[in-house]
Specification:
The complex is a heterodimer of chains A (292) and B (517). Chain A is mainly beta and 292 residues long. In chain A, the strands form 4 sheets. A 12-stranded antiparallel beta barrel of chain A has the order 1-4-5-7-8-9-10-15-16-17-18-19. A two-stranded antiparallel sheet of chain A has the order 2-3. Chain A starts with 19 loop residues before the first strand and ends in a 5-residue tail after the last strand. Chain B folds into 2 domains: 209 residues, Vanadium-containing Chloroperoxidase, domain 2 (Orthogonal Bundle), CATH 1.10.606; 239 residues, Orthogonal Bundle (Vanadium-containing Chloroperoxidase, domain 2), CATH 1.10.606. Classes of the chains: A mainly beta (292), B mainly alpha (517). At the A-B interface, strand 12, strand 13 and strand 14 of A face helix 1, helix 4 and helix 13 of B.
């Protein structure tokens, strides 16, 4: 694998070489007008179009060529185009993960690798978990376990599959009781269901170009539906199936600088907006050990 | 080699994380209550002034059979039989209800309000259907338990229980039939023992009153409500506290008292409180005739105002004329220097949401899907009633006084809101964004402020040692509406004054002179 390829995500099958850092910023623009109220698709004139913008720092560092550290920290800003509700902004959750290439086999004209990922994330600011759909997040500490398999042939074509399970801590509201869509609780603490996701991508990666199509399915393993005309709630059963495309290209000059762009669309969901997402960013690769 | 060390470290971290993530995330639904031992049996409760009943013996309860009769002995035998076969599930039901029937029912009322506190969704043509009591199972669900509906429901659920308990106390001390565990040493007391006579059973009374009232207010939940009521009666039986005939007499009494209240509820003006298109149009004149901007709905599509004629609903222990007499003076007009300053202050809070203020806004928001501000004050009261170890009849009195006050506060507040029909801050200044939903009715005066001050006034009478806490909470609840960008300061301040007036009226004309102190 070329040392000039930057590994960016927890779900891909790429690794940074030893003592190499890939870091940069990604800007994301996500918006939706239609959303699923439970399983009923609708729009809502009291929020109109909900836009979430984020600027995320990310970095991947090769402790060894088999073990990478991946960190991310987004700043998020939300806005509704209609109604009176105020948007929110602030630093969200710091995520730190370890990716371990625990198995690899090279064939004559292809290679197969598998990865285990352990990721930890926790809120870095005291944002409210009780302001969906304009809140910044769930205000939970999460621990994810993930397995990924990656197969690539010499011509550059690859296929990647990944499945993850995310444990989420409970979250705390600013109010002493709540109705979660099913039951009424005399507590400020909300039980947060865990999340399971599957990520599949296929594409081409060679000579500084990475292009892929991807499919993501994310299911919350429990939680209530948004009731008719109710507001969403932090522990709702939020499910989504998204399809997208990502392109990353290393510029000939300056060396190590790559541009990355992606788009994704929610084709089906539950208790979530039917969002379209555009991302763009710059990633820079620094090798600390030139002998490598 | 180095990789091996890394793997070792990683697997230790993994193990540590697995142990974290396997911990229990479940949350207890209900309040934790310890078994109730009343600080005082309140044996004179029959002499306390009734609310709607004319006297404690208005409804006849026949004398019970003799404790030496075969029929009664058979009832005792049935309790022993039940106790010998008690399942874990039955023990849990006893434990739940031993925390206090009035407290448990109050908690159930709050849960029902939260469940039904959802506005109807708009139709495709942009109009809104009205929830229909005659057709409660259709869409939209009935009821929409908004704050005035909820305050009225809390009072109608609590008052019959209170009146019926006073009547029960009358017959308890008239007939003096001891509890089964005091009659037969073979019967265990699975709830704290007391010398309160058992006939008619207070659990029977509460379950009968609650079921009849809740069937009227939350008809769709009849199955859940009936189950709670049956559980409460079974808990009394299984725990050795009451026999089948104690419970049956209580149930009949509770239902009979509830029927007096149902007759009142059907004619108290609630049926007309929603108004109609002509009423909604005519309300604009209430603002334009003063030269003010009339309220418009900020929802899309625009929703008719919430219960515009609720101000005419029958209050408790107060007349509509007395409500009108304490109506506050008019709010400042749009365009006046005073209103401009009010708007500027709301805009400031809208533009400067701090985390601390947001927490206050959300703590007191009590909007859709919650037990409403009156429910929040029941929640606050419940802790104090629990800690005071009130007898069931005194606990019912406390909740009845609190909820009558808040029902009156609804009426006084809605009377004021629709008499002036003025605009919310975001209507006058669209740039004012809010950190909670804008309620769909006029601004002046704030409902949260009126409810909170009325509740704080009544709770300060009931629990004087905590008066300053209640005042602090009421003020915070009132200010939360300004911080949230949905009310002018004046709405909150005048609302607090109006709520205090309403609260003091009931404290002075009823609570202090009902014979319970």
């Amino acid at each position: 694998m070329s040392a000039s390829v930057c590994a960016q995500t927890l779900t891909d099958g790429l690794m940074m070489p030893k003592k190499t850092l890939c870091t940069g910023f990604m800007y994301t623009h996500d918006s939706w007008t239609d959303y699923w109220e439970g399983e009923l698709k609708r729009d809502n004139g009291n929020v109109g179009k909900v836009t979430t913008q984020s600027l995320m720092w990310m970095g991947t560092y090769g402790i060894t060529s088999k073990i990478n550290l991946i960190a991310m920290l987004p700043y998020i800003k939300t806005k509704a185009s209609m109604g009176t509700l105020s948007g929110m902004e602030g630093v969200q959750d710091l995520s730190i993960g370890v990716k371990y290439n625990f198995f690899g086999r090279k064939f004559e004209k292809s290679a197969f690798n598998t990865f285990a990922v352990l990721n930890f994330s926790t809120p870095l600011s005291d944002y409210s978990p009780d302001f969906f759909p304009l809140g910044l997040g769930t205000q939970t500490t999460n621990i994810s376990y993930r397995l990924t398999a990656y197969y690539k042939i010499e011509q550059g074509w690859f296929i990647n599959a990944s499945a993850g399970y995310t444990w989420r801590s409970n979250t705390t509201l600013d109010r002493p009781s709540y109705f979660d869509g099913n039951e009424f609780y005399n507590s400020d603490e909300v039980k947060m269901p865990n999340v399971f996701d599957v990520f599949v991508s296929m594409g081409y990666i060679k000579n500084g170009l990475q292009a892929e199509l991807n499919y993501i399915q994310s299911n919350t393993l429990g939680g209530g539906d948004i009731r008719r005309q109710d507001m969403p709630f932090v522990s709702n059963r939020m499910n989504a199936i998204r399809v997208g495309a990502t392109v990353m290209y290393y510029l000939p000059k300056p060396k190590g600088l790559a541009v990355r762009g992606s788009a994704a669309y929610t084709v089906d969901g539950r208790n979530m907006g039917q969002s379209q997402t555009f991302m763009g960013g710059l990633m820079y690769t620094i090798q600390f050990n030139k002998n490598q | 080699m180095k990789t091996k060390i890394h793997i070792y470290i990683l697997s230790s971290i993994l193990l540590a994380l697995i142990s974290v993530t396997s911990c229990d995330k479940d949350i207890e639904f209900s309040e934790q209550l310890t078994p109730l031992t009343a600080a005082n049996l309140d044996s004179d409760a029959a002499s306390w002034t009734p609310i709607l009943m004319t006297s404690a013996d208005q409804i006849a309860v026949p004398a019970p059979t003799d404790v030496n009769s075969d029929a009664y002995k058979a009832e005792l035998a049935a309790i022993k039989d039940a106790q010998s076969k008690l399942t874990k599930g039955q023990q849990q039901i006893i434990d739940y209800w031993s925390g206090g029937g009035v407290l448990r029912w109050n908690q159930i009322f709050r849960g029902l309000v939260a469940r039904y506190n959802l506005p109807p969704a708009p139709r495709a043509d942009g109009t809104y259907p009205a929830p229909d009591a005659e057709n409660p199972f259709s869409d939209p669900m009935f009821p929409f338990a908004n704050p005035p509906y909820a305050a009225r429901a809390y009072s109608y659920a609590t008052n019959p229980m209170y009146d019926a308990l006073k009547a029960a106390w009358h017959y308890k001390y008239l007939y003096n039939r001891p509890a089964p565990y005091n009659n037969d040493s073979g019967i265990e007391a699975l709830m704290p023992k007391s010398d309160l006579p058992a006939y008619p059973s207070e659990e029977g009374v509460m379950s009968g009153a609650a079921v009849e009232m809740l069937k009227l207010f939350f008809p769709v939940s009849v199955e859940e409500i009936t189950k709670h009521a049956a559980d409460q009666r079974n808990a009394a039986l299984w725990s050795g506290k009451a026999t089948a005939s104690d419970i049956a007499a209580g149930l009949a009494l509770g239902k009979a008292v509830a029927n007096l209240y149902i007759a009142r509820a059907r004619t108290d003006g609630m049926g007309a409180a929603g108004g109609n298109k002509a009423v909604w149009e005519a309300l604009k004149l209430n603002a334009t005739s003063r030269g003010d901007e009339p309220w418009v709905s900020l929802e899309t599509p625009p929703r008719p105002p919430m219960l515009p004629l609720f101000g005419k609903v029958l209050p408790w222990k107060m007349t509509t004329e007395e409500i009108v007499a304490i109506r506050p003076p008019a709010p400042p007009l749009r365009g006046s220097a005073e209103m401009d300053a009010e708007c500027a202050e709301v805009k400031y809070y809208s533009d400067n949401i701090t985390r601390e203020r947001l927490a206050i806004v959300h703590k007191w928001a009590d909007g859709a899907g919650t037990y409403t501000p009156p429910g929040h004050w029941n929640d606050i009261a419940a802790e104090h009633i629990r800690d005071a170890n009130f007898s069931e009849v005194r606990a019912a009195r406390a909740f009845a006084l609190l909820n009558m006050t808040m029902h009156n506060a609804s009426i006084a507040c809605w009377d004021t809101k629709f008499f002036y029909f003025n605009a919310r801050p975001s209507q006058l200044i669209p740039a004012i964004k809010t950190s909670t939903g804008v309620p769909n009715f006029p601004a002046y005066v704030s409902g949260h402020s009126t409810y909170s001050a009325s509740a704080a006034t009544m709770l300060s009478y009931l629990f004087p040692a905590y008066a300053s806490d209640f005042q602090t909470m009421a003020t915070e609840a009132a200010m939360s509406r300004l911080y949230g960008g949905i009310h002018y300061r004046k709405d909150s301040e005048v609302g607090l004054t109006l709520g205090t007036d309403v609260g003091e009226h009931l404290v002075n004309t009823f609570a202090k002179v009902d014979g319970a102190d």
